[in-house]
Structures are given as structure tokens and as C-alpha cells.
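Appendix C reproduces, verbatim, an entry submitted by the partner laboratory led by Prof. M.T., so that reviewers can inspect both the input and the predicted structure.
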Amino acid sequence: MLNKTYCRFITSLSFFFLFFGFVSIVGASDVTIEMEQYAQVSSTPSSHSHLDWRDIDWKDPFVKKGVYKPHVSSNESPSGSHIKLELKMPSPTSMVQPDTFDNLEDPFASKLNTPEMSDPFEDYNRLMFDFNQGFYDNLMKPVVTEYRDFVNEDIRIGIANIFDNAMAPLKLVSSFLQGDFDKTGRVIGRTIINTTIGLGGMIDIADKVFDIKDVNEDLDQVLGAYGVPTGPYIMLPFFGPSYARNIVGRIGGSFLSPTVHFSPGVEVAVGLSATDELNDTSFIIDDIDQMDDSTIDKYESVRDFYGQYRNILVNE
């Protein structure tokens, strides 16, 4: 008889550990389990000792409060063993209070202190963006791809260096008007070294040998340095993203461009500008393709990136 009682106790204890292991597996780390077990050792067998697990009225273990006991008929006396499990689940809304949403940070927000670009002409800009995109996909991209595959990268870098060296007058005036004499001196030193030793600017000797870094300055940055606002965002045909202040800076900078002053005609100036654009695009064609694949709204991505890029140039 003692052995039978011991077996019933072991069976109840096994059921407890089995259920506790199940709760642990499903990850209910916040579940509070309160168990009350009353084991009564009797000298006589229990009236329902013949029941097995199929005779138990199982309850949902994830209810807020559950009481589990064997199912017995009305003419049978209760068992000497009684297990009570009480599950207290936290409310889904108790973890986050409504007033804490205001303190949450946008994980996709830019870390730069960039003013929002005004876009009052969005309908026109999107239409012009689609036009430029079609021009690039159907005409420019195939030409740039063939050019990149045919012309060696070192040659393309040399061509880019020549055009960069030719823009020295614009860089010099822009740096001087901002009162940045460090950049002004660097422009002068780079122009002299690269034009002479660097074979007309084809080889960037100033950077490789003398560690004189390049300068990227234009009249748009001059206006920005003096507090002139950017104005509305404007998508230009063929030229791409811009804004009102940048358009003024481009027009002023064209008078300092050697392609305008020293070209024998408009056709040559346009051809040189197109060659410069074609050569520069050959270095970023893969980045453009990656943007096409990774952005939902390419128009907004281009606008935001352009605004951040120009803002960095103005504030550097």
C-alpha cells in the first residue's frame, strides 16, 4: 500500500516538472507560477486511483488563471492530491506606456543636422525626374557602360584629373571669397604642381607626392557661407537635381570655366562638358544601379541625398 501511495506521489511530481519544462520552453519568462500541492498519505487507496492522463479535464495552460484538478464523477470523493497552477501574464500594453512614444527615435532618420529641402514644385520635379531617368536608362547608361568597359580605369582617372585641374579658377575664387586662405593656397599649389610635373593635370602629383589634398569649392558654397538660403528644390532637364541658389551659383561659375572661355565654339564647349559628365558617371554606374534596387521612392532618395551632400560641402 505504501508503494502505491509513493507511486501516486511520483506521478504527480512528474506531471509538475513536465508542465514546468513546457512553460520554460515556450519562453514565458514573465510568467509567475504559484503552485499549491497538498499531498495526503492515506492508508486506503484513492477512489480515482485507476484514472490515467486521458481521464483528466485539461485546461489551457496560457489562460490568465487556471486551476487544474482531476475530473471525477459526483459520487466519487476528491483525491488526496491537489495541484493548483496560477499563471499571471503581463498585459501587452503594460510594457510600453502611451506617453513614451514621443521619446522614441526614428532609426532611419539622418544623423546630420540637415535642413529639410523645400519642394513646392514636386509634381513638375517628378515629371522631369522621370524624363531624366528615361534618358539615362535608354541612352546614357548603355553609352557609359560601353565607355567604362572599353577605356582603362587609369585613363579615365587621368581624364577626370585634367578636368578637375581645369576648374582651378572657380575653386580659387570661391575659396578666396569665403576667406579660406588654407584652401586658396592649396588650389594655387596643386595647380602649379599638377600642370607642370603632372603633365597638364593628368597625374595628381600634388596629392601623391606632396600630400596636398584637392579642394571642392564653387559659388553655390560661397552663397551658402554668407547665409543665402537654398530656395526650392528644382529638377533640371539633363543636369539633374538642383535648387534655386545652386542654379545661380552654376551660372556664375560658368564664367570661370575654361570650357566657356577657351572653346572655339558652343559645340566644343558642350562636347567637353558632355565628356566630363560621361567620364564621371563611369565611376558611379554601379552605385546608381544599387540605388535603383534598394530604394522604394528613388525621387525622394535622390532629393534627400543631394540636399545632404550640398549641405556638407557648404559647412566643411
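The first strand starts at residue 32 and ends at 38. Additional entries are available on request from the coordinating office.
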